[in-house]
Design brief:
Blueprint lengths: L3 H13 L2 H8 L3 H15 L4 E4 L2 E4 L1 H24 L6 E8 L1 H16 L3 E8 L2 H10 L4 E4 L8 E16 L9 H7 L1 E3 L3 H12 L12 E4 L7 H5 L5 E4 H5 L7 E4 L5 E10 L6 H13 L5
Parallel strand pairs: 3-4, 3-5, 7-8
Antiparallel strand pairs: 1-2, 5-11, 6-9, 6-10, 6-11
Helix pairs in contact: 1-2, 1-3, 1-4, 2-3
Length: about 300
């Protein structure tokens, strides 16, 4: 039997990725964390991590032990769910969604928390594939994805249609822009931006658009909350879902250009079969569905 305390310390370390922060999170000293990892390795009979300065990587034995730690956490969580009163305003809920939707949704969730003091909400921005796998594994109770999911272990409810927006500085509001003028202004690129450009521009500039590689990039940023800032300052244009525009504090300095052909993404709320019947998860799913109507 693996020592439960040592296993929890090791699993937390793998989750946090840093000895000092793990110690702070668990109310321990850094040497204490190292001692737990060393004792667990001794119990297993093989090293669990390989250190490289202040960072570390897992050995094959460490990966196996981590899988056990995560499985044990999930079992404990399911046990808590089974014995906890099924109250829609009590308990923990984890949500995974895109960065732009997380920015838009989070303030609404805070309002929900004001009315449910015993409800603990964890929101994680993640890519589509990670959201699906995390809902299946039980890491996320709810996921919000941009395409319908057909999986025997998942429930999926259509959430809303979200417009994909061409976002420019406010000074260009109402102007008719073509690819030449947009390239002159410059693209504020981001990890999803190139795919968004292919999606939106191929519909509206089929003769002139040669693919995202042909765009003149003015700057690149991978922090969702930072993407609209250079646009607001007149330094370029970008393409974002409407939630990313609405969540920006300085959106009065932005303008959305209506192209001849609008592009929408259908958003879906997914959950693992069985968990969607838990009162707090069902109530929050319904809350998100009602709140998201504002994006239409």
């Amino acid at each position: 039997m693996l020592n439960a305390t040592w296993l929890n310390t090791f699993t937390t370390l793998c989750d946090v990725g840093h000895f000092t922060r793990t110690a702070e999170l668990l109310g321990m000293t850094q040497p204490g964390v190292s001692q737990h990892v060393h004792k667990l390795a001794s119990q297993v009979g093989k090293p669990l991590i390989s250190k490289d300065g202040k960072s570390f990587t897992l050995t094959p034995a460490g990966e196996t032990v981590l899988a056990i730690g995560l499985a044990r956490r999930q079992q404990e969580r399911e046990l808590q769910d089974a014995i906890q009163a099924d109250d829609p305003n009590v308990g923990n809920i984890s949500i995974g969604c895109s960065g732009s939707f997380a920015m838009w949704l989070y303030p609404h969730l805070l309002d929900r928390m004001h009315h449910a003091p015993d409800l603990v909400l964890n929101v994680t921005a993640a890519p589509h594939t990670s959201i699906v796998s995390s809902v299946l594994s039980g890491e996320f109770d709810l996921g919000i994805v941009a395409e319908p999911i057909n999986h025997p272990r998942l429930d999926a409810i259509e959430l809303t249609r979200e417009e994909l927006c061409l976002v420019v500085p406010r000074s260009l509001k109402g102007q008719k822009l073509d690819l030449h003028l947009l390239n002159k202004l410059g693209f504020v690129a981001h990890p999803d931006g190139y795919g968004y450009a292919d999606d939106l521009f191929s519909l509206n500039f089929p003769k002139d658009y040669k693919g995202a590689d042909s765009l003149r990039v003015r700057t690149f940023v991978n922090q969702i909350g930072q993407i609209p800032i250079p646009v607001a300052q007149g330094l370029g244009y970008t393409i974002l879902p409407k939630s990313g525009v609405d969540a920006f504090a300085g959106k009065q300095d932005l303008a959305i250009i209506q192209l001849p052909t609008q592009r929408y993404h259908d958003l879906w709320v997914i959950s693992r079969k069985g968990r969607s019947e838990i009162a707090r998860i069902a109530a929050l799913s319904d809350f998100i569905i009602q709140t998201a109507k504002a994006l239409r």
